[in-house]
Amino acid sequence: MLTIGCHLSRKKGFLEMAEEAVSIQANTFQYFTRNPRGGASAKVDEKDVAAYLAYTKEHGIRDVLAYAPYDANPATDKTSERDFTLMVYAEDLARLAEVEGPLYLIRPGSRLSASVEDGLAEVADALNNVVTPGMKTCVLLDTMAGEGTHVGTSFEQLAAIIDQVDHPEHVGVCLDCASVWAEGYDIVGDLDGVLDQFDRVIGLDKLRAVHLNDAAHERGSHVDRHTRIGEGLIGFEALAAMINHPKLAAVPFYLEEPDAALATYAHDIARFREAYRG
C-alpha cells in the first residue's frame, strides 16, 4: 500500500490537518511543530487530540511526521543556540508522546566554525540528550544538500552521527530527494545504485521517510531549492520511480512544493497514485 501525503499547517489543530489529508486522498502528512524559524509551540488541546486520534484510526492515517523548526541547530557548539535546540527537542518529543506521533524530523544543522567531525559529534550528543530507551517516537535525520557548513550532507556523515548515538534503534533517516540530488547522488539515472550505497553505509532499515520534491538546480550544486513537482531537474518520472521501488515499499512519502495550495497537493497526490504500480 502506498503511504503518501504532503506538508500541512497545524494552525487550526490536529483534527483539521487529518481532515485536510483525507480530503486530498492522503493517508499521511507532515507538519511543523512550531514556526519553522523558531518560537513557541502552540498548546495541545486535549479534545482536539482525542478527536484527531479517533479520526486517524478510522481513516487509516499513519506515519505522521512532525518537523522541528529550522532554527534548531544541533551541530552548534554555541551555548545559547544549543540550549534552545535541546529545549525545542524536549518540548516537541513530550508533545508527540501526547499525540502518539511516531516520527520526528530534525535537520543536522550547521557546524559554523567547528570541524566536520566535531559538528557530527555535537549532533549525536544532542540526540543523546533527548532520545530515551522507552520512547515511541523515532527521531529522523534529514539529508542535507551541503550548503555552507551544514553537516549530514552525505550518507557517511549521517552514519557517523548514528554510530555515536546511545540508542540508535530510535534514530533513522529521511531521504530528501532535492537535497540528495544537490549533494550529488544520482537518483534520476542510478536510483538502484544510490539505494545500494545507502544500504551499505547506513542500512535501509534506517530509511524511514522520503521527501518527494523536485530540484531547481543541477545535481551536485549543493543548492537546496525546490520547485513544483515535474518542473525541476529531477522530474515526475524519477520521483514516481521512488514510490514504485521495491526497496521503498514500506516507506512513507511526503510531498514538498513551494507555496503549494491544497489543490496543488491534491492534484499531485492523484498523479502519484495513478503512477503507483503496487
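(the above was protein one; protein two follows)
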Amino acid sequence: MTTSAAASVSLPADWRDFLALTKPRVMTLVVFTGLCGMLAAPVPIHPVLGFTAILCIALGAGAAGALNQWYEADLDSKMRRTQKRPLPAGRMDRQSALHFGVGLAGFSLALMYFAINLVATIILAVSILFYVFVYTIWLKRRTPQNIVIGGAAGAFPPMIGWAAATGDVTLMPVLLFALIFLWTPPHFWALALFVKTDYANAGVPMLPVVAGERSTRLQIGLYTLPMVAAAILPWPLGLAGAFYGWSAVALNALFLALAALVTFRSSGADDAMVPEKRLFKYSIFYLFLMFGALVVDRWWLA
C-alpha cells in the first residue's frame, strides 16, 4: 500500500499500534543493555530507583522508535518488511504518531531528571535526539555510512544505566558504548545484504545498494576486528574478571568465524544468503550473552 493510499484509510489505531510504534523488539535489547550497565556499576542503586531508570530508558527508546516511524512512513510503505507497521498500513495518522513520540520523550526525560539524576537525563536526551535528528532525518537518506554514525544512538543505554547508578561516566561504560557502536555495522550490514532489494526500492543508500556486496562484506570484517578488541579489553584492564574475559574470548571467536565466512564469501555464490543470516541472528544473541556475562561476573563471581 502506498503512502497516499494509506492516508485514505481510516482504520482506528488501538494500543497494539501504539506499542508497535515503540519497536518492542529493538527496545528489548536497549532495556537489557541499559539494565546490565546499571548492574555492572560499582555503586548499587535502590530497586525502586533502578526500575524507574530502566522505565525511562524504555520510554525514551520507544519515543525514538515512534518518531523514526513518523518521519519514515513513506519509506516504510515501500519496504516489504515494514509495510505492515501502523502508519504505512493506514491504521494511524502521522500526527498521532508525532504527538505520541514527543509526549513519550518528554515524559521519560522529566521522570529521569526528577527521580534519578542530571547526568543520566542528559545522556538519555542525547540518545533520543541523535537517533531522531542525526540518524533518521540527516543520515539515513543521504549516506551509506548512516549505520556507522547513527549506531551511536543505540550504544548509549549502558552509559545511561551506569550513570543512573553512579551519577558519572567512567572508562567501563565508555567501553560498553564502544562495543555496541562497533557491533552495529556488522550486525546491520549482515541484515542489509539479504534485504538490499527492499532498501533499493525505497531509495535508501544502504552500503550494499550503493557500494555493492563485495565492499559490504569487507566492511563487516573490518568493523568486527575493533569490536572484538573493545569487547575483550575490560578483562586485561582489570575492569572485569576472568569469567567475563573467557566468555568474551569464546563469544568473539565465534563472531569472528561467522564474520569471516561472510567477508570472504564470493558475492552471489548462494542466493539463500545463509552465512549472512547466521551472522545476523548470532549477533543478536552475542550482545545479550556478552552483557549477561558482565553481570554474572560482577554479581556472582566478584
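Reviewer note on protein two: The chain has 15 helices and no strands.
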